[in-house]
Amino acid sequence: MSSIKMRTTPAGTRDLLFEECAAANTVERAVTGVFEKNGYQQVMTPGIEYYDVFERRLSGIPCEQLYKLVDREGEILVLRPDSTLPIARMVGSRLKENDGVLRLYYNQSVFRVSPAMSGRLNEVRQAGIELIGSAGIDADIEVITTAVEALRGLGLEGFRIELGHAGFFKALVAGVTDDPELRENIRLCVEAKNYSLLSDLIDNLPGEEQAALRALPRLFGGEEVFKKAKALIKGNAEANEALAYLREVYDILSGRDAAGFLSIDLGLVQRNDYYTGLVFGGYIEGSGLRILSGGRYDGLLGHFGESRPATGFAIETSALIPVILSEEKKK
Questions:
Q1: Quick one: how far is CA 37 from the chain centroid?
Q2: Global pTM exceeds 0.90
Q3: For the CA atoms of 17, 21, 23, 29, what is the dihedral angle to 10 degrees?
Q4: Paired strand residues for 102
Q5: How would residue 56 be classed by pLDDT, with cut points 50, 70 and 90?
């Protein structure tokens, strides 16, 4: 090994020193303290899992983003790139006899090979919750209010939570194509807000949903988004149903402590096969990264045992370290 490599860390990783470690501990204690106060119990999963747990169909994570290795029996393993799937595996095996509502939380690292120049680390600390066995709007409200409480518990006010619905995009794209590859390419364009390529993909497709798909990356903001979207989906019953549900969630949250932190983004379509209903993401002043992501994933646990409704979110506590340090310097 060269002397240079012996003195540096691998790409996408970094050492934490003194103040950074103190900030990391502050963030994780505050966030997990909120989880415990709200009745969530901690679980841990191995840092190494079988590759099959994260197959693309389930995880939505491209193979090239996984750190892969091989054990002595020739089985392909991966460093844990996500915490929800291992917890789903755990629930389907070790917690399968517990058929009540489970409130679980975790605080651990995930590992992904991030694209070059993306600004993301390949090793990220995450703290999150999974609410399993509870369907409906009360559960969705609970996880979002818990996310807001966790961020406010850090003394942070300059953040926003963007709400979307996975079913809205699925209903629109189903009206123009049944080609899985084309659907995924359209989703990627919407997620990246690549307007020109999106137009190229859908210009010659049939269906009245074409106009709504073209507008999707621009459908973000306050409650005015609902009116704009409604005008574009008159004949699509499933899209209207998803939009009505999202409006109900938004109205309830607007009357609670989450008011002032909410916005709507109907172009929030990350990992769309993974999520089945309400989805949300979080951003904060001082960080250009999405620091929170989550949503409902009712179809996932059935791959590991009995099908159960579920929702949750993860906070990237690593991304909050420089924000906390910046706030401390202002004091």
A1: 23
A2: yes
A3: 180
A4: 132
A5: confident
